[in-house]
Write a structure and sequence with these properties.
- This protein is α/β, with parallel strands linked by helices and 225 residues long.
- The chain has a single domain (2-223), classed as P-loop containing nucleotide triphosphate hydrolases (Rossmann fold, 3-Layer(aba) Sandwich), CATH 3.40.50.
- 36% of the residues lie in helices and 24% in strands.
- It is built from 8 helices and 10 strands.
- The chain has helices spanning 40-47, 70-80, 96-109, 119-125, 141-155, 171-186, 198-203, 219-223; strands at 2-11, 14-24, 29-33, 55-60, 63-64, 81-84, 159-163, 190-194, 206-209, 217-218.
- The strands form 2 sheets. A 6-stranded mixed beta sheet has the order 6-7-8-3-9-10, sandwiched between helices. The protein has a 4-stranded antiparallel beta sheet with strand order 2-1-4-5, with helices on one face.
- Helix 3 (96-109) packs parallel to helix 5.
- The model has no long low-confidence stretch (mean pLDDT 89).
- The structure holds adenosine-5'-triphosphate.
- This is Lipoprotein ABC transporter ATP-binding protein.
- It comes from Streptomyces niveus (Streptomyces spheroides).
- Keywords: ATP-binding, Lipoprotein, Nucleotide-binding.
């Protein structure tokens, strides 16, 4: 569904990655690994149309994403993408319900046939049942991450982009994140995760070593003896 061809990114004379050529398919999970500074977040930002690649093309269902105007980019982000970033990207001074309500709107516009999950059901799935009226900035970091997960469950975006989603979490919340991302993939979302966490990497279907490889390797091949 997302076709990447000859993608590269440089800052000045510094080449972060080049000639990336692969497909991100619905229902699959791709891990982006590599040392700090190799350009994992930058690649996620390019996939999320928050940054632009230096050369190459990205297309979604044959629609060229590198040629969209500002308004089309906003609509694509709203209707197609879900972010799970380290700062949770929530509206801090609003309630959990308000944060999830924002996620519902674009889902209504999508041509999706997937069954909708209500905010109440999504909160139950992440262990926050009945907490709709809580203000987000009063929640712990782990709870905020779970609200961000609930937002993804409600929105069911075609493409989920996650940047170190377990970096600051305890083991319980880490498993919550991993299980939810796997469930999103199983329901048809494509999931791309920048991670240093071997637990997360091993859950994915394939791994791209950013800055070193140009195509992902199936996880099965990595773990083969
Ligand atoms: N706008 C920019 N201008 C110049 N350099 C930048 C810019 N954005 C990022 N970089 C540099 O690009 C490199 C890659 O950054 P990026 O955050 O993508 O790496 P990363 O692999 O995600 O690292 P980490 O694992 O530490 O999060 C870094 O050296 C960073 O300083």
């Amino acid at each position: 569904m997302i076709d990447i061809a000859g993608l590269s990114k440089s800052f000045g004379t510094r080449v972060l990655w080049q000639d990336l050529t692969f497909t991100i398919e619905a229902g699959r999970m791709l891990a982006l690994t590599g040392p700090s500074g190799s350009g994992k977040s930058t690649l996620l930002n390019c996939l999320g149309l928050l940054d632009t690649p230096t050369t190459g093309t990205m297309s979604h269902n044959d629609r060229d994403l590198t040629r969209l105007g500002a308004r089309q980019i906003r609509i694509y982000r709203r209707d197609t993408l879900g972010y799970l970033f380290q700062n949770y990207a929530l509206i801090d001074n609003a309630t959990i319900a308000d944060n999830l309500g924002i996620a519902i709107r674009p889902a209504r516009n999508r041509d999706s046939t997937r069954p909708a999950t209500s905010p109440a059901e999504a909160l139950e799935q992440v262990g926050l049942a009945g907490r709709e009226k809580d203000i987000v900035h009063r929640l712990s970091g782990g709870e905020q991450q779970r609200v961000a997960l609930a937002r993804l469950i409600v929105k069911q975006p075609a493409l989920v982009l996650a940047d170190e989603p377990t970096g600051a979490l305890d083991i319980g919340n880490t498993h919550m994140v991993i299980n939810t991302l796997r469930a999103l993939a199983d329901s048809g979302c494509a999931v791309v995760i920048a991670t240093h966490d071997p637990l997360v990497r091993d859950l994915c279907d394939s791994v791209l070593e950013v800055g070193t490889s140009t195509t992902p390797t199936p996880v099965k091949e990595l773990s083969a003896p």
